[in-house]
Design a protein that fits this description.
heterodimer, A: 110 residues, mainly beta, six-stranded mixed β-sheet, three-stranded antiparallel β-sheet, 9 strands, globular, B: 120 residues, seven-stranded mixed β-sheet, 0% helix
Chain lengths: 110, 120
């Protein structure tokens, strides 16, 4: 059971907008920032969004993040087939003095 | 460019120990926290602990207390993760990742992962 809650799956057709949610508590999302990672099979996670909504260099602006209270979301607009991957949210948890992750969301482009 | 290069795959028997290395390059090793995260087959990401290479201070997830040991050798910019008392459910890919600090930061670089298989 992951500390942060994400839907296990999401899907959309090319060109659509998809949003993935991430729910936490005052001990993690509510007291800090949220980061999002993208992971393709057999590879390491890659930083996609940091500090709630910032995109690292090289990440397309189709990807955006937001946070409100103890929840966050990742949105992908203009969905493309190469966006098929697993997406994880992450936040620091003061109770464990370490990061906690969502269970991951598998995105399928139909 | 910044890299974290991990050691190769391991196959271990139940009850044994495994030690995985993570060599840093192109950045000042002692400026960052090094964390270890694992991923069981078909599962999500699970945090094991962190070490501050500068001082060697460590902190472990409660689940792994007593079984995991994080160390580092600053002379070769390498961090190590040792997991003892291996069980079948420790079979996973183990990643190292760097983080500048704690709560208001993120994992910007990850190692390629090391598969640890526990099998009799």
């Amino acid at each position: 059971q992951s500390v942060l809650t994400q839907p296990p799956s999401a899907s959309g057709t090319p060109g659509q907008r998809v949003t993935i949610s991430c729910s936490g508590s005052r001990f993690n999302i509510g007291s800090g920032i949220v980061n999002w990672y993208q992971q393709f099979p057999g590879t390491a996670p890659k930083l996609l969004i940091n500090n709630d909504h910032q995109r690292p260099s090289g990440v397309p602006d189709r990807f955006s993040g937001s946070k409100s209270g103890t929840s966050a979301s990742l949105s992908i607009s203009g969905l493309q087939s190469e966006d098929e991957a697993d997406y994880y949210c992450e936040a620091w948890d003061d109770r464990v003095n370490g990061p906690v992750f969502g269970g991951g969301t598998t995105l399928t482009v139909l | 460019q910044v890299q974290l290069i991990q050691s190769g795959a391991e196959v271990k028997k139940p009850g044994a120990s495994v030690k995985v290395s993570c060599k840093a390059s192109a950045f000042t090793f002692t400026d960052y926290y090094i964390h270890w995260v694992r991923q069981a087959p078909g599962q999500g990401l699970e945090w094991l602990g962190w070490i501050t290479p500068n001082s060697g201070v460590t902190h472990y997830a409660q689940k792994f207390q007593g079984r995991v040991t994080l160390t580092r050798d600053t002379s070769i910019s390498t961090a190590y993760m040792q997991l003892s008392g291996l069980r079948y459910d420790d079979t996973a890919v183990y990643f190292c990742a760097r983080r500048w600090n704690k709560s208001f930061y993120y994992f910007d670089y990850w190692g390629q992962g090391t598969l640890v298989s526990v099998s009799s």
